[in-house]
Write a structure and sequence with these properties.
β4 and β5 form a beta hairpin. This protein has about 170 residues and is α+β, with helices and mostly antiparallel strands. Helix content is about 25%, strand content about 30%. The strands form 2 sheets. The chain has a 5-stranded mixed β-sheet. A two-stranded antiparallel sheet has the order 3-6. The longest helix is centred in the N-terminal third of the chain and has 20 residues.
Length: about 170
């Protein structure tokens, strides 16, 4: 004996069947036309050489503003000038590269600049801060084997993501 969970039979009043049909079509139509905009991710590009690793961070300002604690999106053109030291301190507190816990690499922030960016798939343009790092391993360590401990923004905003890519490898 089979069980019917739901069927359109004559036992259901015509008005309820019509309501259910129209409600279903409305939901289907809305789901096909609703497009949530993609939140921008951080992009981490690594350039590995024999003696050091160059890193370019492309961090969306809208996401950084949620965790940084300052109104950094109000005047993005003066962000580095006004908050440069605090930004460097924040970044260095959330980026750790090491061979092992007791063998950290030296991280130097070379440059920071704010630029306009666009999402690859869809969505409106946005502002991002591009940060250039030079990372040097301890003496005798290889630049091709390391632990990259990165939680900028993600330490507080769990929906944020960072896409890490090796752009160049000697």
């Amino acid at each position: 004996m089979g069980y019917k969970i739901f069927s359109f039979t004559s036992r259901i009043p015509k008005g309820q069947r019509l309501f259910f049909f129209l409600f279903s079509m409305t939901i289907l139509h809305l789901s096909q036309n609703a497009h949530a905009h993609q939140t921008p991710s951080t992009i981490v590009l690594m350039d590995i050489s024999l003696s050091k690793v160059g890193v370019e961070l492309q961090i969306p300002l809208s996401e950084l503003a949620l965790v940084f604690g300052q109104n950094i999106t109000q005047n993005p053109e003066t962000l580095v000038q006004n908050f440069g030291p605090q930004l460097k301190e924040y970044l260095l507190a959330h980026i750790h590269i090491m061979v092992a816990k007791d063998q950290p690499w030296w991280i130097e922030i070379r440059d920071m600049k704010v630029e306009k960016a666009e999402q690859m798939v869809s969505g409106p343009p946005f502002q991002e801060i591009t940060v250039y790092l030079i990372i040097t391993p301890p003496a005798g360590a290889s630049t091709r084997k390391f632990i990259f401990d990165y939680d900028v923004i993600m330490h507080q905003l769990v929906t944020h993501s960072a896409l890490v890519s090796i752009r160049n490898d000697w």
